Input
Amino acid sequence: MIGTFDALLHHASALGGKRVVVAAPRNAETFEAINLAASQLHATCILVGDQDAARNAGIDDRPGIEFVPCSTTERALSTCMELLRDGRGDILLKGSVDTGTLMKAVLQPESMLRTGRLLSDVFVFEYPARAQNKLIMITDGGITLAPDLKGKSELIANAVEVAHALGNPNPKVAVLSASEFVIPALQSTVDAAALSKMNERGQITGCTVDGPLALDVALFPDAAKEKGIRSAVAGAAEILLAPGIEAANSLAKGIVSFGGLRLAHVVMGARVPILIPSRADGSDAKLLSIALGMVMAGAFTR
Amino acid sequence: MIGTFDALLHHASALGGKRVVVAAPRNAETFEAINLAASQLHATCILVGDQDAARNAGIDDRPGIEFVPCSTTERALSTCMELLRDGRGDILLKGSVDTGTLMKAVLQPESMLRTGRLLSDVFVFEYPARAQNKLIMITDGGITLAPDLKGKSELIANAVEVAHALGNPNPKVAVLSASEFVIPALQSTVDAAALSKMNERGQITGCTVDGPLALDVALFPDAAKEKGIRSAVAGAAEILLAPGIEAANSLAKGIVSFGGLRLAHVVMGARVPILIPSRADGSDAKLLSIALGMVMAGAFTR
Output
């Protein structure tokens, strides 16, 4: 099992040869991450956009880095979609384009990247405090605004696919809320109960689902014991399904900001893994996301 | 301004003489916190419930600790309400009673503790990373399930009252979401815009409100700058209004768990401050909440 970010980087570099299509790269952290991906992870990075920017950053003449010059962002995006559609790229990495514009290009029928599944962003954290090294996932803090029950079951499926690719064959999924009780007036607790039952009935597979669980009960055995919650997931959760984008986003940002933990993330549900690092991510976080994308791309072709 | 927990403890101990009515105390952390409140904060703690439990914990014969023996939890609760109604107590502290049962007793008309305002739980964090020491508030991760726009404006009012009592005359309120843009399909961003305007129009006073803001943009000047958000609140938020109980609860628990920060909290909106520490809180966290309650009780009588 890939239980640490070091193992993730190692595994990605051993995969080699994955082709990362980069949409309109322009900022220093992106170039730095591309450089590291090519040199350390043996990825091939195809930079689609303004070649002068890359030249100025000094990465235009290195092994593993290729160029497809495009004068406008619009052209760069349509060129990226062509490369991916035609199987000349394995992973899409957002450069200096906003996420909405990028996702719109991905979702266009002529891009042929849709699979009929919901697209969602899966955050992956290294969580060294837990005895057994495991990567923890939080979803969806990036794309799906207000998932309904069906949407939530698809968010679980996407995160479970990431867990499987990381070598965790039956991840424990905690459906987060603010309570462990079903509260009729709090829809997230009702949905959590429904998702647990869907898992029991074989409608959600490849994982063990329980909820509602508050964050502490989901992650920490002591909290689970203190509250008297008996559950295969409580205290041992590996995937945290938040009730909505605001909760997932603020939880993830809180963990990064206050806990100093690192975050990788990948958008699942399309025909290729899509990486949408935020402008605020440093090159280290971007490199981890590229490694995650490479491992997902490896899993897709198995 | 009270900008640190040390200052909060100091200020509370200087107030002295506040009477903390404790509903059915039974566990060791509660007794330890009561003991510290009496000895260090010079509070008078009125323990309403099973005197044997207190005797076994060895705190039945100390200055500042009084007893009102009650044989059942139900009796203990009604006695607490009488004490508070009759002005013989200043603060209500939950012992080993569940929060729902306690709040039901508070909300009964005969308790005369209601004010017509919404009751909400205000979390207070010490945030030493920020240059100027300030306590940061998050609300509501404890009581209000799914506030609508009117509810959110009342949550702000309650948190602002706490900020004022801590000596911050015009707190900066960030209305959290997952984005800084108004997204019609994401109600929390629409509500955030409405709350900002209500503040501009003088419908929400005593503070400066801006939103929607994601957590990093709300708290960190670098993130605000990176995203190009011009706002009196971005990068400097002192009150974080989460869109719902799940987001507030998981954000607060994430900060405590991953950031190792300490948390005090107080329920505002009733005639007296109400303290509902969780079972998982240690005596240190409970003592901080008692100090916070004392400062709020001091503010109420000004």
Summary: The first helix of chain B runs from residue 5 to 15. The radius of gyration of chain B is 19 Å. Chain B touches chain A at residues 141-142, 145-146, 176-178, 183, 185-188, 214-216, 219-220, 222-223, 226-227, 242-251, 253-261, 279-280 (CB under 8 Å).
